[in-house]
């Protein structure tokens, strides 16, 4: 995943309603949820839900498919995995400039002494 794509996905998720929608779609799994059921489940008006689903779709986090007169939405698990992989690809590699020692780990807080 490119930085630009990650920024788009993170920006899309940086809204409470969109994050709730995306999490509901993740819980639903690959089968997804019809838009009407999602609207009811989250108590979000259909027009508002449509606006937020469009933002998630533009970011590549949500896919949709028509089923008769309804549209079923599902989280794009590949895109979600790519975003998580992007965020963690250099996990624990450190940011040590050349010639500098690694910082010592923080010490655990000492226990207060018991008074006799």
Q: Could you write a compact summary of the structure shown?
A:
It contains five helices and three strands, in the order ααβααββα. With 116 residues, it is an alpha+beta fold. The longest helix is centred in the N-terminal third of the chain and has 13 residues, at 16-28.
How does this model look, in words?
By secondary structure, this protein is of the alpha+beta class. It has one domain (3-88): Arc Repressor Mutant, subunit A. It has helices spanning 3-13, 16-28, 35-42, 46-58, 77-88, and strands at residues 33-34, 62-67, 70-75. The radius of gyration is 21 Å and the shape is elongated.
Q: Which key phrases capture this entry?
A:
3-stranded antiparallel sheet, elongated, 116 residues, Arc Repressor Mutant, subunit A, alpha+beta, 49% helix
Q: How many distinct folded domains?
A: 1
Q: What is the CATH topology classification name?
A: Arc Repressor Mutant, subunit A
Secondary structure tally: strands? 3
On the 0-100 scale, what is the average pLDDT? 86
**Uncertain spans:** none
- How does the helix and strand content classify structurally? alpha+beta
Helix content: 40-55%
The H/E string reads HHEHHEEH
Helices and strands, with pairings:
Elements: H1 3-13, H2 16-28, E1 33-34, H3 35-42, H4 46-58, E2 62-67, E3 70-75, H5 77-88
Antiparallel strand pairs: 1-3, 2-3
Helix pairs in contact: 2-4
């Amino acid at each position: 995943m490119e930085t630009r794509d990650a920024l788009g996905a993170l920006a899309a998720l940086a809204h409470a309603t969109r994050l709730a929608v995306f999490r509901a779609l993740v819980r639903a799994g690959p089968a997804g949820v019809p838009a009407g059921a999602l609207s009811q489940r989250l108590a979000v008006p259909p027009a508002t839900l449509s606006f937020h689903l469009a933002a998630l779709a533009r970011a590549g986090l949500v896919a949709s498919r028509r089923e008769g007169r309804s549209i079923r939405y599902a989280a794009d698990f590949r895109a979600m995995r790519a975003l998580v992989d992007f965020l963690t690809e250099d996990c624990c590699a450190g940011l040590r400039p050349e010639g500098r020692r690694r910082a010592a780990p923080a010490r655990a807080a000492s226990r207060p002494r018991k008074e006799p």
